[in-house]
Amino acid sequence: MPSAHYDLILHSGIAMTPSGRTEVDIGVRDGTIVAIGDLRTADAGERIDCTGLHILPGVIDSQVHFREPGAEHKEDLAAGSAGAAAGGVTAFFEMPNTSPLTITEEAIQDKLDRAAERSWTDHAFYVGGSAANIDTLPTLENKPGICGVKIFMGASTGDLLSPDDETIEKILRAGRRVVAVHAEDNDRLQERAHMVAEGADVSMHPEWRDVEVCLRATTRLLRLAEKAGRRVHVLHITTGQEMALLAKHKHIASVEVLANHLTLAAPDAYDRLGSLAQQNPPVRDAAQRAALWQALAAGIVDIVATDHAPHTLEEKARPYPQSPSGMPGVQTLVPVMLDHVNAGRLTLERLVDLVCTGPARIFRTARKGRIAVGYDADFTVVDMAAKREIKNDWIKSVSGWTPFDGVTVQGWPIATIIRGNTVMRDDELLGKPIGRPVQFQETIPPLEPAS
Q1: One of 25, 122, 307, 353 is an active-site residue; which one?
Q2: pLDDT tens digit string along 143-162?
Q3: Using one digit for the tens of pLDDT, what is the confidence trace for 298-334?
Q4: Percent of the chain whose pLDDT exceeds 90
Q5: What is 5-55+373-386+406-429's CATH number, 2.160.10.10, 2.30.40.10, 3.40.980.10, 3.60.15.10?
């Protein structure tokens, strides 16, 4: 390969490219990958020695709650994105159940304005799908910085709750981009609320929000998606029963699993962590966790994400069920999943498919998710041999805690590079926030015809 000048060269790393893993140099110019090959003689403004390290495409966490605006005492865009960068995540997609809800053009622009010059990583936002904005959804979903539409079928989300089939079908018919869905059946949740209404041990959480709560909602959703002809992305699946159903609907539905649900299991998680292990849908038993791993191995799962949803320790300490559901996760996604790779539960190639290529494919990002010429120079550089203990004092989140405090993992993010800019190296954030809105294929204006 001829000598040339590059802004950045990643030298001699083991790159996870579409052609497989290979020891290679990567040349970056103007934030874009422009060369992959032998660049030993090339000139560069910066050269990073990646000998012995693996270079992944930039990891995308496609489900986070950064709580801003409205609940910045739990999390905000600056701290949440700092945690993402510290953990090797180069982009996040953030949920609409903020205050005010992200269901209007004004609320979308407000989030983009808040993220400008404060987000350490690239970012996009979901627009909430609800009865209140069905008529405007086809316009809202194509606004710059929007990754898709989000529906809550059963959760305490006020105007974002869409429990009935009529509303869900109308939302599905109102547009064409991917619709991400939290599928828990609200009627069954209400029918079973008496189980915990007077107070209960937090270990009752998966009993109240049982398998049928999820299976019933996912069954309804798939029927409505088929009827409307709209592809859906079903979030945080926790049961083997749902996986068996989703395997028959891959033409219309993609599937997400959370790192938490692949790692934690009842009753141990509730015994050790109490309400810190409480989230929706719940952490279930080891048999259900094994079913998730089987579905992942079978290729049913498209994406692994975190549903990063922090609350303060004081809030989590309330007696169940007054304790809120949700855990931090964006900063621990990469080390937790690398530990699973080292334990032999999945290959590094499959992990790249789940946290890099998968989100790019499902959400149709432009120029992200691959180490390939012409793509953004987003990289998650990791040391597969490094053994580290995850600690609360490493966590950047406003909430300041992780359910994996005290857990030793093998595999650690060494550098986070976004559009050729190193924003984290050896656990230190560098420079200032440079995050920009992620671009999507559907929202890029068509080229003007050549004259």
Answers
A1: 307
A2: 999 999 999 997 545 567 77
A3: 999 999 999 999 999 999 999 999 999 999 999 999 9
A4: 94
A5: 2.30.40.10
Give Cα separations from 10 to 7, 15, 416, 429, 434 (angstroms): 10, 10, 12, 19, 20
Q: What is the reported pTM?
A: 0.97
Question: Is residue 2 predicted with pLDDT exceeding 90?
Answer: no
The token pair that represents 399 in the structure block = 């909430």
- The verdict on whether 307 is a catalytic residue reads yes
